[in-house]
Automatic annotation (TrEMBL), chains A, B:
The lineage of its organism: Bacteria, Pseudomonadati, Pseudomonadota, Alphaproteobacteria, Hyphomicrobiales. Pathway: One-carbon metabolism; tetrahydrofolate interconversion. The gene is fhs. The keyword Phosphoprotein does not apply. This is Formate--tetrahydrofolate ligase. Keywords: ATP-binding, Ligase, Nucleotide-binding, One-carbon metabolism. Signal peptide: none annotated.
Length: 559, 559
């Protein structure tokens, strides 16, 4: 009967175990498990440091086709696969991202998975959780306040107030703050200038927290943030403002991974949540590397489709953290194949094998792309009740032509029992020793060539175009020593091209680079190829108008 | 040797017990104690509701003379007295306010008490603690975002954008945000208007959280916030914007009191922290009323000196929550008496009985004022090592002439052993049945008369002056049904007058009312008599420049 309940109803009915018992399974002593309520905990930095000589488990990436309005179920499959691996006797953990608070008040909040494959407690994970994002907001805005304060007291560093690139952040959808003038009110308040707020997940502090190995590395990276430039265009760093120490103090607890559980009581780290366009879109390195010490299998996911998410996971996170993924799962659905085959959302009901076959081109491109990183691939067909056998078979047949396998998974309805086949296949791939992971491009490649490599190899673009000023900026950064950084592409998630309406597997398109940004602390160059919104707005009727506590003290309207 | 250690060194050496053990002493079952780490916990709303039929303990207010740069030690005495009452066999609890995060990065952070009379863990209490202030920031700013969003989508409520009184908040000292223009950037972003940020503790949401009885009352009060006016000056409420439900959801956990412990392992609630000028400056009603159910003695404090803090505690918090204090302790020091007697801070060393005697007038005024509320008073002389016997005796002799007793307390150096005499005296007063608590003025008195009553009766002012527009505004609120609200005076804390340099016990001065503000959700009228800064700035060399983690992972520079 699970099909007739909503995700939140299923999640509320979960038979949760005390978080101490979940930690015990992983061998975490009580004193190293820092509880936040009865069902959430942080893992102490001290415990993490003590695991460093242990062998690593196998790392499995769950990625997906380009998202469609039909829904793919990447997180659901990540959770389901973790449960499935535990079910077949493996010691497995899940590592996923934290949700952002602000967007929940615009549209309904996101579940962590769905159906019988969820991480709980869902409400807390969509609200304040363990306070990580609030800590990031505080650390980010402390630096902002210290920059304006520096100018106020005489501007010894000679900051060019027109060239301050460090804005402020808030975990709220508030378009009124996108573009503002601060420091009004005369002598007591400062020197007026134009700036704005981004949403917290867009903060470079978020990306840094998710890439830092430990607190020392965190402070080092925070110190390296470029906050402004002088009139002569030389950069001014966070450490020039002397904010890096206090920011590290504010982030001390936020750096510790959060332990929660799946509905089947298996352990999950939910930690960090950087934007998947102007940042790399993966959960924290600390969570992933710690999980690899504690479990034999770690299932993690990357944001958006494989063209953006998996590429960044491999080229940024794995490269920086020295991770070597052992297998990748690409999630697809029959419905999404049909949409890629040209069918509209309202017409997805009737069987349409031809549309499925046509839409498979998108899936095929992703399978081939992931293989370019030397990682063996399996396709998970996330089952929907309307799928017909012939449609499912069409996907399987197509994937077989690529030398890979597509496996039907029913974890949404059945939990781990519905995903055993995929779990066995993942174990087979991971144990086979097939994986020969290598990033797409070497550190030494010039920055513009890196962009071209991603665009041509992954997106199958014909060319990359950019204004002279963009190319000059890239060369300047190379001169300043940033040439070895990887590229973080900000592109629409809906297409291999920069046109969100171009589904399937387009080729030969042009990728126009509008802007490039340096994230010197996080350690990547952001390349922007379209409109990127870093502060969302609320819709005409925001979901917050309906959110409330009911008579039982439960939250209504959030899901 | 304790005298030679800093507060933070003493606090770090505290022999803390697991918070579950502290809760057990109060009879809180494990499932109702929501842990935040090993030494902090929230008490479930469900448990609190179940205590409603239990008898109340005795309520003791700790207040003080007007603060001087010499330091008085109000919180230290609150903590010491709580420990002292436990030492003499009473079941006692402490209720104090939470610290604000932002100011710690300007000046050094505040301890929760001092010496051997502290509440721990000090670091966490000065950083994110259990996230209450972050939740308040989120709830406040959600309402702000929804107001601008309402205008953006057509302004059905006909909000006059020039008359939006609801600003935004951040828990940061950031003067750049005091006065800003938002909604720049054209059609996609909104209608430009001038506004600003206050620090989170100045938010009306903070005052509301601290005065609400339960979640239902909280939502009711949030809904009653006046956020803006129309062109015809009719008010627009938070509930018109439909933000009250979602704000309540965001504040659900923040409404639960935080349990920590003193260094002597006695229970303390640290919950809420409204400004003591534009708000009432007391810890939450929920914490105090819950503590009264769990302990036989509850020791709490109010902000600033008794002229502001005790008056608001009695006239706002006690009036609204139906609390009946049984005794009050007024904290004084020999050094502060000398400063009130005209001695400069650098000259406080040598014995000066005459200056002590002269300065006692300030103390005497406070003793007499507190008695006006029908609450028996004892004076605590918080001992400093430089105090001479003759100076202490001078204070005792003076207080005896007022029909009260002054007791020397050495809790800073000795903990509870140094404050037994005061504890016995407090028990004697509380058990005596002397207390006949009544607020200073009735609800029905006209608003301007209430202001005059406070100014003349408590400050000994000669007159209250105000522009015609101020008097008209008060009359308008009376017409709108706000006439029964109590007054929340925003006045300098350093003097009975509005001149911060006028120490001692001045009389006949003029109190000029600059501005009045309606806090309809909190339920009081704010009367501003001087410059009130609701968003602090950072100093030339902010303490944040020196804050960092040391090799042991301890926080340096915060204290």
């Amino acid at each position: 009967m699970a099909e007739y309940k909503t995700d939140i109803e299923i999640a509320r009915a979960a038979n949760k175990k005390p978080i101490q018992q979940i930690g015990e399974k992983l061998g975490i002593p009580l004193e190293d498990l820092v509880p936040y309520g009865h069902d959430k905990a942080k893992i102490s930095a001290d415990f993490i440091a003590r695991q460093k000589d242990r062998a690593d488990g196998k790392l499995i990436l769950v990625t997906a086709i380009n998202p469609t309005p039909a829904g793919e179920g990447k997180t659901t499959t990540t959770v389901g696969l973790g449960d499935g691996l535990n079910r077949i006797g493996k010691k497995a953990m899940i590592c996923i991202r934290e949700a952002s608070l602000g967007p929940n008040f615009g549209m309904k909040g996101g579940a962590a998975g769905g159906g019988m494959a969820q991480v709980v407690p869902m409400e807390e994970m969509n609200l304040h959780f363990t306070g990580d994002f609030h800590a990031i907001t505080s650390a980010h805005n402390l630096l902002s306040a210290m920059i304006d304060n520096h100018i106020y007291w005489g501007n010894e560093l000679e900051i060019d107030a027109r060239r301050i690139v460090w804005r402020r952040v808030m975990d709220m959808n508030d378009r009124a703050l996108r573009d503002i003038v601060v420091n009004l009110g005369g002598v007591a308040n400062g020197f007026p200038r134009q700036t704005g707020f981004d949403i917290t997940v867009a903060s470079e502090v978020m990306a840094i927290l998710c890439l830092a190995r430990d607190l020392e590395d965190l402070q080092q990276r925070l110190g390296s943030i470029v906050v402004a430039y002088r009139r002569d265009k030389t950069p001014i760093y966070c450490r020039d403002i002397k904010a890096d120490g206090a920011m590290t103090v504010l982030l001390k607890d936020a750096m510790q991974p959060n332990l929660v559980q799946t509905m089947e009581n298996n352990p999950a780290f939910v930690h960090g949540g950087p934007f998947a366009n102007i940042a790399h879109g993966c959960n924290s390195v600390v969570a992933t590397t710690t999980a690899l010490k504690l479990a034999d299998y770690v299932v993690t996911e990357a944001g958006f489709g494989a063209d953006l998410g998996a590429e960044k996971f491999f080229d940024i996170k794995c490269r920086k953290a020295g991770l070597k993924p052992d297998a990748a799962v690409i999630v697809a659905t029959v419905r999404a194949m049909k949409m890629n085959g040209g069918i509209k959302k309202d017409d997805l009901g009737p069987e349409n094998v031809a549309a499925v076959e046509k839409g498979c081109a998108n899936l095929g491109r992703h399978v081939q792309n992931v293989k370019k990183f030397g990682v063996p691939v399996v396709v998970a067909i996330n089952h929907f009740v309307t799928d017909t056998e012939a449609e499912v078979q069409a996907v399987k047949d197509y994937v077989a032509t690529l030398g890979a396998e597509a496996i039907l998974c029913k974890h949404w309805a059945q939990g781990s029992a519905g995903i055993e086949d995929l779990a066995h296949k993942v174990v087979e791939l991971a144990e086979s020793g097939q994986a020969q992971f290598a990033p797409l491009y070497p550190d030494e490649m010039p920055l513009f060539d890196k962009i071209e490599t991603i665009a041509k190899s992954i997106y199958h673009a014909g060319e990359v175009i950019a204004e002279k000023s963009v190319r000059e900026q890239l060369r300047q950064w190379e001169t300043q020593g940033y040439g070895k950084l990887p590229i973080c592409m900000a592109k629409t998630q809906y297409s291999f091209s920069t046109d969100p309406n171009l589904r399937g597997a387009p080729s030969g398109h042009t990728v126009p680079v509008r802007e490039v940004r340096l994230s010197a602390g996080a350690g990547f160059i952001v390349v922007i190829t379209g409109e990127i919104m870093t502060m969302p707005g609320l819709p005409r009727t925001p979901s917050s108008e309906k959110i409330c506590l009911n008579d039982k003290g439960q939250i209504e309207g959030l899901f």
